[in-house]
Amino acid sequence: MSYFLNLVFAGLAVGALYGLLAMGYAIIFKVSRVVNFAQGEIMMLIAYMAYSVALRTDGSALLVVLAVLVSSVAVGFLIERFVVRPMLGQPVFSLVMMTIALAILIRSVAALIWGNYPYRFPGAETVQPFVIAGVYIQPLQMVLLAVYGAICVAVWAFLRFNIVGIAMRATASDATVSMLMGVSVTRLYRTAWVVSALIAGIAGILFANINHIGPDMAHIGIRAFPATILGGLDSVIGSAVAGLIIGVVESLTGGYVAATYKEIAGFVVILFVLMIRPYGLFGQRNIERV
């Protein structure tokens, strides 16, 4: 039983990271109907920027957090302004290919600047895990889960009660009507990319402190993508919850089946779920009159 609980907790910790990235996927898709396949690379880039700041400030936590916030906003804004906005009005396939090209570009630039080797994040403390009911828990894993919960609540409140969040939901329903009502769709696109980059940056800095920082961080974006599909591409909170499901499934698969099957476990789950609910567990069915 202790072994099972340890696998579940480890899966929840990884799933929280997936859930954060999945929220970033869903926020952009909800507003613009674009799947951003550069989400993992954006997380990696912001983490590297924070790493550079940490090297020069002896790992000052306050300055590193400030660097994450500033670099996330800057990266999200620049990508939306100079990469996404010129592509508006183009076929969705072109936009998706653009995000793939952006992912390759970011990965190449990061390799040129920081190299291809993993690093230990400066100031990351090696704290002994504590045990509760036979479950080994790292303090930073608890921090990750707490941040995950706080961001879920903040994003839900933002979409539910904030005027910008309500406008984003309206635009997702019908962008043309929203424009006729005076909503600046371009500004909402920018907000979506900035918020998505901010969540990715927070996820990246947490992962870097728990594990390491390196080019392999970018692959987490692809491993988190099944959570977005499972939860529903148009459901931000649903994608976050699905991240926990995918994380636990991967952990149990690695523990009871084989570690080599962990990476495909999430895709197997969505394969079965989509045969029953093509729009995801929490997504909305789209009905079109023809």
From TrEMBL:
It is found in: Cell membrane. GO terms for biological process: amino acid transport. Coiled coil: none annotated. InterPro entries: ABC_transp_permease, BCAA_transport_permease. The chain crosses the membrane at residues 6-27, 60-79, 91-115, 135-159, 191-210, 222-249, 264-282. Keywords: Amino-acid transport, Cell membrane, Membrane, Transmembrane, Transmembrane helix, Transport. It is a multi-pass membrane protein. GO terms for molecular function: transmembrane transporter activity. GO terms for cellular component: plasma membrane. It comes from the Bacteria. It holds the Pfam family BPD_transp_2. Belongs to the binding-protein-dependent transport system permease family. LivHM subfamily. PANTHER family: ABC TRANSPORTER PERMEASE PROTEIN, BRANCHED-CHAIN AMINO ACID TRANSPORT SYSTEM PERMEASE PROTEIN LIVH. This is Amino acid/amide ABC transporter membrane protein 1, HAAT family. It comes from Paracoccus solventivorans.
